[in-house]
């Protein structure tokens, strides 16, 4: 039983380091010229990523919504208030209404912002994309998380996420699948502290942000691709993914679409 659950959900943050020169895919890229002056991961919230010639075309979007996948590009992120959060707006990217067993959203924290709690029995994972946030547990233990840092909050674990300056985080929430005699612990850490893992048959760099023990019912992968690198395995299985392209460019096949 449990094995099925472990495979049920792998949410990923992808980081393609793909410096695209003029070549066979030479749609003019706004990014390649401007990326050096922009903050790390600005791609996620910069809504002007469409090719230069199409940028201002009303109605232009690369976003698609299909039965088994969706591609949601930055200009389709619609921010609205998040229930119980203060001075924060959120853009939902994935929700159970789309058929997933988890929620994925971007939260934009403004000055003097503060999070609300997830629903009962729901675990939460956050990863900082811009700025910094302070996470505090009910016991008063406090950590400052900067870009590339993350936190995991077990279900029903009281905590707050606060910021006194603008910050952006990605949040994953999921109804926890309890297993007797196994409990998850709250975690705070950063990507650079995680070891590179073996990826037999693959050439990209892989880091996992959560422990691979039975207690954790999902994981977050940071996948780094150098120019020319690719994922060898063609995944066809029942497995749910939420994916955020953090940096660079790449080609991704979803269903029958490229
Ligand atoms: C939101 O931020 C503003 C400006 O910093 C602050 O004055 C206000 O009290 C905050 N709102 C709430 C509900 O705390
Ligand atoms: C962060 O992760 C590393 C590698 O998994 C671990 O050795 C270290 O103890 C963790 N740090 C904290 C503060 O949990």
Automatic annotation (TrEMBL):
It holds the Pfam family Cupin_2. InterPro entries: Cupin_2, RmlC-like_jellyroll, RmlC_Cupin_sf, UGHY, UGlyAH_cupin_C, UGlyAH_cupin_N. Residues 108-171 form the Cupin type-2 domain. GO terms for molecular function: ureidoglycine aminohydrolase activity. Residues 1-19 form the signal peptide. The keyword Magnesium does not apply. Keywords: Signal. This is Ureidoglycine aminohydrolase. It comes from Medicago truncatula (Barrel medic).
């Amino acid at each position: 039983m449990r094995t099925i659950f472990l495979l049920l959900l792998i949410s990923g943050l992808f980081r393609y380091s793909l410096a695209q020169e003029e070549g066979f895919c030479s749609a003019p890229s706004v990014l390649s010229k401007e990326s050096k002056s922009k903050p790390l991961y600005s791609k996620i919230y910069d809504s002007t990523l469409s090719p230069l010639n199409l940028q201002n075309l009303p109605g232009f979007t690369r976003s698609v919504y299909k039965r088994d996948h969706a591609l949601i590009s930055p200009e389709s992120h619609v921010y609205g208030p998040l229930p119980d959060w203060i001075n924060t707006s959120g853009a939902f990217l994935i929700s159970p209404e789309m058929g997933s067993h988890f929620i994925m959203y971007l939260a934009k924290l403004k000055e003097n912002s503060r999070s609300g709690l997830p629903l009962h029995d729901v675990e939460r994972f956050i990863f900082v994309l811009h700025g910094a946030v302070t996470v505090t547990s009910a016991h008063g233990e406090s950590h400052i998380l900067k870009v590339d840092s993350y936190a995991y909050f077990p279900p029903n674990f009281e905590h707050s996420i606060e910021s006194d300056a603008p910050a952006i985080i990605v949040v994953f929430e999921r109804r926890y699948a309890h297993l007797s005699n196994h409990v998850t612990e709250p975690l705070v850490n950063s990507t650079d502290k995680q070891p590179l893992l073996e990826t037999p048959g693959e050439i990209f760099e892989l880091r996992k942000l959560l422990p691979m023990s039975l207690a954790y019912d999902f994981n977050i992968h940071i996948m780094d691709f150098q120019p020319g690198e690719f994922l060898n395995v063609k995944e066809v299985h029942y497995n749910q993914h939420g994916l955020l392209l953090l940096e660079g460019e790449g080609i991704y096949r979803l269903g029958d679409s490229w």
